Amino acid sequence: MKGKHEPELLHLDLDILVVSKPSGLPTVPDGYDTDLPYLAGLLEHAFGRVWVVHRLDRDTSGVVVLARNAEAHKSLSAQFQEHQIVKTYHALVMGHPTWQERSVSAPLRVDADRQHRTIVDLEAGKPSTTHFRLLEKFQSPLTQVSLIEATPKHGRTHQIRVHLCTLGMPVVADALYGNGAQLMLSAIKRQYQPGENGERPLIGRLALHALSITLTHPTSGKTRTFEAPYPKDFAAALKQLRKHASRQTQSARAGV
């Protein structure tokens, strides 16, 4: 199963199903339009009943693990509750950090306003910690962009996006927590000339990708890591940044 709005199968056994979710596809039914396709529904149609144990934002791409039976669901849910599962994300963000690594611990309250945003709330927020690592910095005359690795300890809604905003570096094309500015080739390529149809963004959606997840398999007890390669738009944006912008690499991990 692989199409523009369909997940890519990464792993399948009797207990778990691992896929790479495309951007634009919600994990569970949309609360406003229940007729829209959603990840769990597509997978149940193809593989039978599945149990959702974690979610990605609609516009976030990347790896999602689902249970295929009640016992696997119980095991995975307990691992998430005990913060035993490690999730790693990559994001293209606006700006350059002054640090190589940094952790943000800022309590978050979800669905806090009419736009359903998550906010930092020192009194009513729930504990939320994310560790960030700088992978690459890109400099051009018109923009500064960085590739950041994020490892959240907790899994609050929009946690990575909000914590990056507290650092002054919103995710590229994040209209909810940033200005929504898309990454354009004209911002990084000198003397760029658009074609007859004008310029299209290198990446026009939220530039956040769930790269990998590490867990204990519910039956074998073995530690397993599953990784979702960059989708085409994310990979293409990085390729153009590396080609046309001044680049500083911080880690070999940036070569994913």
Description:
It is a single chain. The chain has one domain (8-255): Pseudouridine synthase (2-Layer Sandwich), CATH 3.30.2350. 16% of the residues lie in helices and 30% in strands. The chain has 4 helices and 13 strands. The protein has helices spanning 39-47, 70-81, 159-166, 232-244; strands at residues 8-12, 16-21, 51-52, 61-67, 86-94, 101-105, 108-109, 119-120, 129-139, 144-152, 208-216, 223-227, 246-249.
H/E series, N to C?
EEHEEHEEEEEEHEEHE
CATH superfamily: Pseudouridine synthase
Low-confidence stretches: none
Oligomer: single chain
How many strand units?
A: 13
User: What global shape is seen?
Assistant: globular
User: How many structural domains does the protein architecture include?
Assistant: 1
* CATH architect. name: 2-Layer Sandwich
List keywords for this structure.
alpha+beta, Pseudouridine synthase, 4 helices, eleven-stranded mixed beta sheet, single chain, 256 residues, two-stranded antiparallel ribbon
